[in-house]
Amino acid sequence: MSPQPRALKTLNILSVILVLGAFLQVILFTPYEEIMGPVQKIFYFHVAVAWVGMLGFIASAVVAVIYLVTKDLKWDVICLAAVEISLVFFFEAIVLGSIWARRAWGTWWTWDPRLTTAAILEMIYLAYLLLRQGLEDPERRARFGAVYTLLGGLSVPLTFISIRIFRTIHPILIGGGGTDTMNMSNSMLLTMFISIGVFTLVFITLFWHRIRLGFLREEVEHTKLSVTE
Amino acid sequence: MAESLDTQQKPSSNYFKAVASITWKDMAAELRSREMISAMLVFSLLVILIFYFALELDVKARNSITAGALWVTFAFAGTLGLNRSMAIEKDFGCLDGLLLAPVDRSAIYFGKMISNLFFMAIVEAIVLPFYSVMYNINLFNSGLLLITFLGSVGYIAVGTLLAAMSVQTRTRDILLPILLFPLTIPVLIAAVKASSGFLLGSAWSEIEPWFNILIVYDIIFIAVSFMVFDFVVEE
Amino acid sequence: MIEVKKLVKRFGLKTVLRGVDFNATPGEFVVLLGPNGAGKTTFLRILASLSRPSMGLVKVAGYSLPNQAAPVRQRLGVVSHMPLLYGDLTAEENLTFYGRLYNIPLLNRRIEVVLDLVGLSSRKKDLVRTFSRGMQQRLAIGRAVLHNPEVMLFDEPYTGLDQDASEMLDGVLKNVAAKGRTVIMTSHDLARAEELGTRFDILNRGVISASAQRSNLGQGNLLTFYKKVLAGTDG
Q1: Which residue of B has its CA nearest to C95?
Q2: CB contact, 8 Å: C234 with chain A?
């Protein structure tokens, strides 16, 4: 087993420090929003984790295409890594969004286009994992996984648009405009961008770790096989 | 080789013939056994009956819920048909038989897709009048029929591709709806909204965005399925 | 007719074929023997263009795989332990369907001839579903020779057949399927293999570990040869 490269070790430490830093920035140095009170501070993390989920989503679709073109199984490992990270972070985004919505709109769940699309995307990811589970041959698993990720990558934007039109025609639900209408001071915006930047770094670190894990797992399989033969 | 070897022709000239013969084969087999269509049909009618009791479809609720009830019915009946249609190919090794033939893989996709669409259309053609009679609501509206067709095309385009994948997995039939429904949400939303738009007599400007989404979805997913079907059947 | 050099096939990390070298000259009937999991079926699926080689050269009838799959498919017939037929179509319809996929000219006459060759003319209007296993297998041979291929692949054609049906199949295999063609067959039935083959190759652990001509082997010695080879490579 090869040790972690120095760049990754640096990223580990940097991520921890910066996440703590972003935390302090959000708690101590960002003004209270008048109406929402302290709960509003969730918003900075909500946006940041949703952003990471988005990065994972885009990465997985791009990597799926690369796999289908190159047929190199390493891209499958990377695609799975991106999907798993995106799955976890969108889940966090939904949970944080719910907490925020509870305070803002008095309900845990709103059929907001972003929130709903994220939930549907989670379903697609779970279907992806179930699909992989049902296949033994690694190459077929990789091919089918890539095709499904690609289809997901195309349908999710359409889903988002559909839900958006759906909501504008039927504005009967509580809430409405959501984050679009929020008034943010400059320091709030700054904090938001800081936390997005920090979480991008977290994404890179986790992605790297998850890809390494995938390769290590393959190495283990390989060793097992060479021992039994 | 004593006999003719003049059977060699370019596969490209064979393309439409291959699509047509796969569709013909499916229809001939299905019109004889009627297994798939009768299962889809009985299932659909049961769902419609259940909706009556589950939703208490009184006259007022009917107008707004009809499109949703219909599309839920079509979507579930559709997965039954898609599963069955691919299982037939897989069970006696026929998929290998198709792949051994000197035809382009995408011809197999289009052949299967057209026959699946045909089966779905038959079910719809029976369900719609049945629903009309049962709930005393006129569904014979050309706009509604057009939307039903466009929605079915998108649904079947993705469904045929995914059925070809799910049939090769260990979990098979259970997997198809799980794979299919989250990807077809745009079709379902757009078809339901456009259909109820036509039923409620809404203005075209309200229906148009849904109509556009259906068209865009159909085009994108037929094109992508055409491109990736090779990856689904090759080894 | 068939040329294979250093063929490697991997399924993920598992290597099934590890450098197979294989040649078959026109008219040869090669029987591939070997224990379960030796890679016989995988090897045939690669020759049939159903599976892609991971590495190495594969040429069938002068065309290399996987890049020139279309002309290879035109010249190739496959009989496997699955019939590759549709139960809800008649014998004649099944052949019509496959004939259209292969774009065979004067199809109806060709179908008459083939049905006669496999002895199913009288049952041509019957559904394949109602056929016995032996009859299905004969029709499967009819399907495989429909386009008069130069190369035939038989993958365990005797699976699931009783004694009588096997004997009947023997005749059809010898006189219809193999006549004037190059044949590769896998089988566990050493007695039948000995009768049909002109050459016996033993595939074990992903390589061809021995090969013997029928003329050099002598009558009734195949089993001894087979056991000796397997014992040699195991030890």
Answers
A1: B25
A2: no
Please, what is the Cα angle at A124 between A121 and A125, to 5 degrees?
90
Residue C86 makes CB contacts below 8 A (sequence gap 6+) with: B25, B29, B88, B92, B94, C93, C94, C97, C128
**Could you give the ipTM of this predicted complex?**
0.90
Query: In this structure, how many other beta carbons lie within 10 angstroms of the beta carbon of residue C181?
Result: 21
Most confident listed range (A1-5, A27-31, A222-226, B214-218): B214-218
B interface test, pick of C102, C137, C179, C183 with most B CB neighbours within 10 Å: C102
Is CATH 3.40.50.300 the right assignment for the domain spanning C2-80+131-234?
A: yes
Residue A229: the pLDDT is 64
Phi, psi dihedral angles at B191 (to 5 degrees): -65, -40
- For the sheet with C55-60, list strands across it: C14-24, C2-11, C55-60, C63-65
Task: Note the pLDDT tens digit of each residue in C58-117.
Answer: 999 889 888 888 889 999 999 988 889 999 999 999 999 999 999 998 999 999 999 998
Q: How far is B85 from chain A (nearest CA, A)?
A: 19
In tens, the pLDDT along A34-89 reads: 777 777 888 889 999 999 999 999 999 999 999 999 988 899 999 999 999 999 99
For chain A positions 20-79, those within 8 Å of chain B (CB to CB) are 68
What is the reported pTM?
Answer: 0.91
Say which residue, A158 or C178, is predicted with more confidence: A158
Integer Cα distance of B13 and B11 in angstroms: 6
Cβ count near A222 (within 10 Å): 12
User: In this structure, what token pair is assigned to residue A42?
Assistant: 């969730």
Interface contact A169-B206, CB threshold 8 A: yes
* Tokens coding C198: 């002109």
CB B81 within 8 A of CB B116: yes
Cα C80 from Cα C185, distance rounded (Å):
10
Of A29-38, B45-54, B180-189, least confident by mean pLDDT is A29-38
Tokens of A35: 């109406």
Query: Is A172's Cβ below 8 Å from some Cβ in B?
Result: no
Each residue's pLDDT tens digit, A155-207 = 999 999 998 888 765 444 334 444 444 566 778 888 888 999 999 999 999 99
From the CA of C134, how many Å to the nearest CA of chain B? 15
Q: Which residue of C has its CA nearest to B33?
A: C88
Element (H, E) at A126: helix A113-133
Q: Residue B22: which of B90, B116, B91, B151 has the closest Cα?
A: B116
pLDDT at B61 over 80: no
